């Protein structure tokens, strides 16, 4: 049985967002990709006060200098496609007003015929929090908790009632409603609190492809935690692969997962598919020159992955 594959949409500065997003979305759906995904990067601090992912000394990639707003990008893709699921991996929850985000996602799901997958995380950039956050960085976990609660309330039956730290809904009719319950997936790394939040309150998990052994161990630990906490519902899993594509296979020492030519990327996809996750999202946009190359690489990866039984 093959693993459903998704594709990251073009959001970076080398792309013409208005033209390339619909074009790539249509092409991906024709190729056979079952989902289309966006990520969030609000700004590019200059000079950077913090390394990438909060790692001291790790530079931000130049491609982050311009990243299109994720929900606008997803709306463009929704209008250009018919079947592909539309996912966020991830939205940085505390950068959004909970009620407005819940209503926007509900509207997008209703408009697309029930195709939205809501992936949330807490983020790591202090500069983004300073510019846009609803609550301080230290309260990022609580902000995500409230966002999940508001979404569940707004997407549920009327009258909607919610009493939170930021959001107060006494009693209201809120529409449109989603076409079906929108699944909420969370990015949860090594934090015990984040993993408990996922097990207790989310529908699924958004791991990152850092090596098959690493992801398999994280998945084992998450399943064990779910069993300990009495969860009976399955945890939906979508692996994000940030591929570093090159026209030729990587020949240097210490190749990282998903670095190199299409054959090497597919080899790593096969290794990760053996873990038994539900879906794999492949994002190559950061290393392709333009939309034409992105479409060509995406089609070749899909073709060779299917030939390899992924």
UniProtKB/TrEMBL annotation:
Residues 19-241 form the Luciferase-like domain. Signal peptide: none annotated. NCBIfam families: F420_Rv2161c (TIGR03619). This is LLM class F420-dependent oxidoreductase. InterPro entries: Diverse_substr_monoxygenases (IPR051260), Lucif-like_OxRdtase_Rv2161c (IPR019921), Luciferase-like_dom (IPR011251), Luciferase-like_sf (IPR036661). SUPFAM superfamilies: Bacterial luciferase-like.
